[in-house]
Design brief:
By secondary structure, the chain is α/β, with parallel strands linked by helices. Helices cover about 35% and strands about 25% of the residues. The mean pLDDT is about 90. It binds zinc ion.
Length: about 325
């Protein structure tokens, strides 16, 4: 049973909104675009891994995705943790595409579709460190007996995994392709056939893990050191993506392609929600949508959102 879902989809939406609202000249533009691209492939990779996991017996296994736990050294993140009565399995998911070549040190050379080579460190020590930290964490919570296993899962089925040597296999045994995940899991189930914890104990542990899970800060502007004033304001044309649309005869009008829209402001307000927050005042709305009239702002807001507070202090919940 999946007790904790993946958490990256929201981050992907936030990064997408930030990219849209950041000038190409902003010093953080490249970093935001790079992280957005990685996050997008991360979310796709997560979905790929969900498929083999969907074959696991939901009565017997508890699945927790994207756990972020604290220990003495700070935070450590576990992509996926599977709890069973006889062993725990940690999955480190790698969204690497193209061709992966493992050398004798387990280091990875990735060759992308564009034939550009990129190096990555051996993923196994990194996963082992997460496992070590998890092991310590469990000991601190009086769980001593359960065997812990780890796998590095290459999420995309089209990715080719190879050894740099034609005669020696340098691919670490912990590294598997997504399509082997279910079968490797079954093998581990056979290896660890003794039940050491009851399902009730597993549930308690899963609840404790979810309770101490600390999501990374949602405040994306703080993370990327972008101030509110630096964001590009206005309503994008949904057809040609030009900016800003103007208000004309109770509609949004694109001066670039003449497209008309009644609700183009909703996407802009969603960007506001993703980047700044759920609550918006009339003045903030005028600023973000580049409107001059408080009455138009009020009309647009009241049509779609509930408000709290009276006149001056009124805010609307997006
Ligand atoms: Zn347009």
């Amino acid at each position: 049973m999946i007790l904790k879902q993946h958490g990256n989809t929201m981050t992907q939406f936030r990064l997408e909104a930030l990219d849209r609202r950041l000038s190409p000249l902003h010093p953080m533009k490249n970093v935001v675009q790079r992280d957005y691209k990685n996050m997008k492939s991360g979310v796709r990779g997560e979905r790929e891994v969900d498929y083999p996991l969907s074959f696991l017996d939901v009565e017997k296994y508890l699945i927790l995705h994207n756990l972020r736990l604290r220990d003495k050294q700070g935070f450590f993140q576990i992509d996926t943790l599977i709890l069973s009565e006889s062993f725990f399995l940690l999955l480190e998911v790698k969204n690497w595409y193209g061709t992966l070549l493992f050398d004798e040190n387990g280091q990875v050379i990735r060759i992308g579709d564009d034939y550009v080579e990129e190096g990555f460190p051996n993923p196994v020590p990194q996963a082992k460190m997460q496992l070590h930290r998890l092991h310590k964490w469990l000991q601190n919570h009086d769980i001593f007996t359960i065997p812990l296993e780890l796998l590095v899962v290459i999420s995309f089925l089209s990715t080719i995994i190879k050894s740099t040597s034609p005669t020696t296999n340098f691919i670490p045994k912990e590294v598997i392709h997504n399509n082997q995940l279910f079968f490797t899991f079954e093998e581990l189930g056979r290896k660890y056939s003794t039940s050491l914890l009851k399902i009730g104990q597993l549930r308690n542990l899963a609840e404790r893990l979810m309770k101490v899970h600390t999501p990374p800060s949602k405040d994306i502007l703080v993370k990327y050191n972008v101030s509110k004033d630096e964001l590009i304001k206005g309503v994008f044309c949904p057809k040609c993506f030009a900016l800003p649309m103007i208000r004309k005869k109770r509609q949004w009008f694109c001066t670039n392609c003449s497209h008309k829209s009644v609700d183009a402001h909703l996407a802009a307000l969603n960007d506001y929600k993703m980047l700044i927050g759920n609550n918006i005042s009339n003045q903030e709305t005028r600023e973000f949508l580049q409107l001059t009239s408080p009455n138009v702002a009020k009309w647009l807001l009241q049509k779609n959102f509930k408000f709290v507070g009276n006149t001056k202090a009124r805010v609307y919940e997006i």
